[in-house]
Each structure stands twice: as structure tokens, then as C-alpha cells.
Design brief:
- It is a single chain.
- This protein is mostly helical.
- It has eight helices and no strands.
- The longest helix has 24 residues.
- The chain starts with a helix and ends with a helix.
Length: 183
């Protein structure tokens, strides 16, 4: 029985000291596995190979893990699988809505207003929108979403919680109403 296998058996039997002895013996191999996994990741990945090794090791040897390891190869195979799962979890987190999803940073100087290029009195439009809001707040909100943020029909309808056809009808009404008000 190899030294690593003996330590794995000791860990399985609850020896706390054994896990401290294991890491130095398998660290180089874990680091090599992590480096191979990281090469497959996209550029700019925020998780470092060292952090990946330590997270995988903690998952494998942590107090909640009751898996018995047959030998060094079995442990390293499980470590590679653990690293794969950590990378998947990390990628899911980065893509999640809470973490920003597919949103990308944009330089403010590159942003053009959705109303740019139009010869329009913005103050007159604002006053007309206030009057429209008194008559129909949802139509006024639809105009703000479509005109000022540049949202399409589907996006604006989703934000307002209305159907696409209702959004189309209210948009047609609001445009006509504003055209009359602004003339």
C-alpha cells in the first residue's frame, strides 16, 4: 500500500492530521490537473489554478465528504471531476442574472441616446408625456421605454407585463396622441 493510499485510509477513519499530510504529497499532480483544466477555459477567467486546487481539495477532504478512496488514482480522478464541477459552477454563476448575465461593460462615451439625431423639442415632449400619463400611465410608460431606452415592442411589452398586440395598439395610440399634442 502506497503512502498516499495509507493516508486516504486514515482520513476515511477520521484522522484529522492525515489530511494535512495528504496535500503536500498530491499537490503537484492536483496543480497539473488544474492547469490542464484552466487551459480549456476562456481568456480572462477569474478563477486561478491554485484556487481551483484548494477548492477541489476541500470538497474532497472536507468534513461533509464520507467517500472512501481506494487509492491515489481514484483520489486524483475524483479531484479532476471535482475541478470540472467547480469550473461549471463558476461559469454558471458568472452567467447568472444576479451576477450580470450576458451584460457587458460599455464605455459611456460610446453610448448614443435613442433619440439622437431627431430635431425634437425634448421639453415639449416631456410636457406632452406628463399629460399622456394623466390620461393613460401605461401608454406614457410604453413611450418612455420605446423612445428613450430604445426597447423594441417585445421588450417593452415584457417590462410592462402586457401582450405584444396590446403594446402595438397602445404604441399606435400614443404616437398619434403625441403627434397631435406636439403640433
Amino acid at each position: 500500500m502506497t503512502e498516499v493510499t495509507q493516508i486516504l485510509v486514515a482520513i476515511e477513519q477520521g484522522d484529522q492530521q492525515a489530511s494535512e499530510e495528504l496535500l503536500p504529497l498530491v499537490y503537484a499532480e492536483l496543480r497539473r490537473i488544474a492547469a490542464a483544466r484552466m487551459v480549456q477555459e476562456s481568456p480572462g477567467h477569474t478563477l486561478q489554478a491554485t484556487a481551483l486546487v484548494h477548492e477541489a481539495f476541500l470538497r474532497l477532504i472536507g468534513p461533509d465528504n464520507k467517500v472512501g478512496w481506494d487509492n491515489r488514482a481514484h483520489f486524483l480522478s475524483a479531484a479532476a471531476e471535482s475541478m470540472r464541477r467547480i469550473l461549471i459552477d463558476h461559469a454558471r454563476h458568472k452567467k447568472s442574472i444576479k451576477a450580470g448575465g450576458n451584460h457587458h461593460r460599455v464605455d459611456v462615451s460610446q453610448i448614443e441616446l435613442a433619440i439622437g439625431g431627431l430635431n425634437l423639442d425634448i421639453f415639449a415632449l416631456d410636457e406632452a408625456l406628463e399629460r399622456l400619463a394623466e390620461i393613460s400611465p401605461r401608454k406614457a410608460e410604453l413611450v418612455k421605454l420605446r423612445f428613450f431606452t430604445g426597447m423594441g415592442h417585445n421588450e417593452a411589452a415584457a417590462v410592462l407585463g402586457i401582450s405584444r398586440s396590446t403594446a402595438d395598439n397602445e404604441w399606435a395610440y400614443a404616437k398619434s396622441w403625441l403627434r397631435v399634442e406636439l403640433e
